[in-house]
Amino acid sequence: MPDRDPPLLLILGGTADAAGLARRLAAERPEIEVLTSLAGRVRDPKPLPGRVRIGGFGGAEGLADFLRQNRVALVVDATHPFAARISANARAACDAVGVPRLQIRRPEWPRHPDDRWIETDTTEEAARRLPATGNRAFLTVGIGELAPFADLPDVWCLVRVVDPPAAPLLAGPHLALAARGPFAEADDTALMRDHRIDVLVTKHAGGNATYGKIAAARKLGIPVLMIRRPPAEPGDTATPEAAMAWIAEKLENKAGRCPDPQGVAAPLTP
Predict the structure, then answer these.
(1) What is the mean pLDDT of residues 194-199?
(2) Is 200 helix (H, G, I), strand (E, B) or coil?
(3) Strand partners, 103
(4) How many angstroms separate the Cα of 108 from the Cα of each of 89, 158, 177, 244, 256?
(5) How far is the C-alpha of 92 from the C-alpha of 98, rounded, in Å?
(6) Vertex 205, ends 194 and 226: CA angle to 5°?
């Protein structure tokens, strides 16, 4: 059975890296059909070239079924570096169906000698250490990671989220700020000064879009509770800049083959 024409590439998105890849593919490889999948956490996502789907797949099994039914040729996992569950499901599904998968890993932020980072392994550890680190915190951990900070009565928090919340985000004193990146260093410096921030809490996401807060904290001499990244899933990884070369290589390798898209290469694993 011949491969579908054009080949379908599934981008697991929701990041600037995913959007940038979709735009590059539209401009440089228009023969590839691109489908970007978004989790649906943002109410009004920015327009993207190609097709867009919103919502989950139903775990690794659901994603595997989607790959088979749609005869997906390649998967690029360009989700957030902290989206560990999604990345694990992508690995399991692609291994089961035999679809090549790339995990984009943007470089981590380099640590400057003047940075005052306090590194933690988890969000919960960062929340435990927060009261001893500062009294006015700038939280940029994502709306899904706020539970450990929910009740800190002695710490005032400025919480940056994408969409305006419908209800209070924390039980303790806080202010929710709805804004979308990228965020410039000058703007984050002014924001932190205006709110008298004395500690930044963030994830080690890397990339340029949100580096402004790191540079601003350095300029202001503010400590940063920096949550370390989880390890990458086993398999091919690349920087955002190298993703196009991986895609070209995999499509060239697939040319002339006649795989059975209904076949299963390996059982699903958690």
Answers:
(1) 98
(2) strand
(3) 77, 237
(4) 23, 24, 25, 20, 38
(5) 10
(6) 65
Distance set, CA 257 to CA 4, 73, 74, 251, 265 (Å): 11, 12, 14, 10, 16
Residue-range domains of the chain with CATH: 8-107+230-254 (3.40.50.720), 117-227 (3.40.50.720)
| pTM for this model (two decimals) | 0.82
Q: Which has more pLDDT, 3 or 8?
A: 8
pLDDT band at 14 (very low <50, low <70, confident <90, very high): confident
Size (the chain), residues: 270
* Residue 10 token pair: 């599934």
Cis omega (within 30 of 0) for bond into 182: yes
The DSSP line for 42-97 is SSSPPP-SSEEEES--SHHHHHHHHHHHHT--EEEE-S-TT-HHHHHHHHHHHHHH
Whole-angstrom Cα distance, residue 109 to residue 268? 34
> Residue type at 249?
E
